[in-house]
Amino acid sequence: MAERRVFAGPAVRKVRREAGLTQAAMADALDISPSYLNLIEHSQRPLSATVIVRLAERFGFDAAKLGADEVPGGLAGLRRRLADPRFADLGIGAQEVEEWLQTAPATAAAFARLFDRAGDAATTPAMAEAPEVDAVRRAIEKWRNHFADLDARAEELADELRLAGGDLYGTIAERLRSRHQLGIRILPSDVMPDRLRWLDWHARQLMLNELLRPASRTFQAAATLAQIEAKAEIDALVAGAEFAETAAARLFERHLIHYFAAALMMPYSRFLRACDATGYDLLLLQRRFGAGFEQVAHRLTTLQRVGARGQPFFMLRIDRAGQGSKRYAGASQSPLVDGDARCPLWGVHEAFARPGEVVADLVELEDGSRWFTQSRSVAAPGATGSGTPARFAVCVGVDAKIAAPLIAARGIDLMRSPATPIGLGCRRCTRTGCVQRSMPPLGRPLRFREGERGVSAFDFVGD
Question: The HTH cro/C1-type domain covers which part of the protein (predicted)?
Fold first, then answer.
């Protein structure tokens, strides 16, 4: 089979502009002629393997992003949106969609964003994501939730702490004491009823809630170290994001602090080796690195280092009502993290009924794509036994086509075994005859047949 040619003009042009180079200067750096580079940038010539390698080596660019886009769900996601009945009269073909994504990925991403927000508005305005949260999520996905500078700094610090011996929490506590004159105090929950961590610079103390479990206690101590020792790297990333709102900048800063803390607990190279050696055994990884399930799940979405990649996982965290409070697509481009509606047939909801278990599920979307997901319920950090306990379901997933190395997928024919047919929420799902359907799909007229009642509450005009 002939190798697929890669046209990635906008991506190459973006690399050049970010580097502040003219076409002539970049062509010289790539050892090609300016006229050839001009043709590449206008998608009139495909990228050769040699040029791709030189871009990666000389500009630190992730070669896997060449020709990629920022449309959630990638090419399949864009095709799914354009398959909406509202565009049926336009006769948009698959080749036309692919050309749009190749030649103008930014406008395709803008269309996808507007389409998704229009869908949310058609359901209910209350379901739309808060603007500052949406801005931060877009900034995270722009980096595919991999911040190379933070990972490198955290790995360097982790090696230093490892040489100091002892458990990680103890070595972090000692570093805070000896280098920053900060002591750690564990305070009763009634003294800190609404706080997990409190850094009091005046008293030179880091105060932690006694309800924190060991993994969370280490994480909060690591987060404090991140605030101090990774401040320059974090401030640079926040400034580069150029948020319009202060609240968004602070949310992004918090994400980066927590990113560094997780990277300190699970240093990149050691964690990736453990993932490969254990078949991404989530519970074993928890024990090996002294981390929580949610911390491991989030770390899996960050393994995008050039030359040392892990599986492209996505992560989702929902509450009992199905509302997503964390969703990272990473490099997966999975549509399962799009929007805030979830299919009730998806096994992520079952995790609440099976505490302590990892619920594996092979699901199939309407476009035929399959995803292998693993979900587990987790308690909120510092949760008490009084009142209604705060619980979430955390889910990680990967494209079924590449899920075979996962120990949880062993023995499953991922492409031929029966899979749970799910949609992306009732308003975006056009499957007929679904007994769980709560609302009709967008853009589909309802159909009524006198004297009949189907298994679904809504019958509508199909394809």
Answer: 12-66
- CA nearest neighbour of 108 among 135, 140, 72: 72
Contact 25, 79 (CB under 8 A): no
**0.85 cut: is pTM over it?**
no
Question: What's the mean pLDDT when you consider all of the chain?
Answer: 87
Buried b or exposed e, range 378-400, using 16+ CB within 10 angstroms? beebbeeeeeeeeebbbbbbbbb
Rg (CA), the chain: 24
CATH code (residue 239): 1.10.10.2910
Q: What is the pLDDT of residue 52?
A: 84
Q: Do 361 and 422 touch, CB atoms closer than 8 A?
A: no
Q: Which residues on adjacent β-strands are paired with residue 141?
A: none
Q: How many CB atoms lie within 10 A of CB 223?
A: 22
Interval 70-86: pLDDT, tens? 666 667 677 777 877 67
CA-wise closest residue to 347 among 419, 403, 277, 289: 419
CA 162 to chain centre: 29
Nearest partner of 327 among 414, 424, 192, judged by Cα:
424
The 8-class DSSP code of residue 447 comes to: -
pLDDT confidence band for 338 (50 / 70 / 90): confident
Amino acid 382: pLDDT: 63
How many whole angstroms separate alpha carbon 408 and alpha carbon 389?
Answer: 29
The string of pLDDT tens digits covering residues 159-183 is 999 987 779 999 999 999 999 999 9
Distance (Å, whole) CA 103 – CA 125: 33
Same domain membership, residue 254 and residue 138: yes
Pairing between β-strand 359-364 and β-strand 370-379 as defined by DSSP bridges: antiparallel
Give the domain extent around 358. 309-427
Q: Confirm whether 28 is domain-assigned.
A: yes
- In the three-class reduction of DSSP (H, G, I as helix; E, B as strand; rest coil), residue 420 is classed as strand
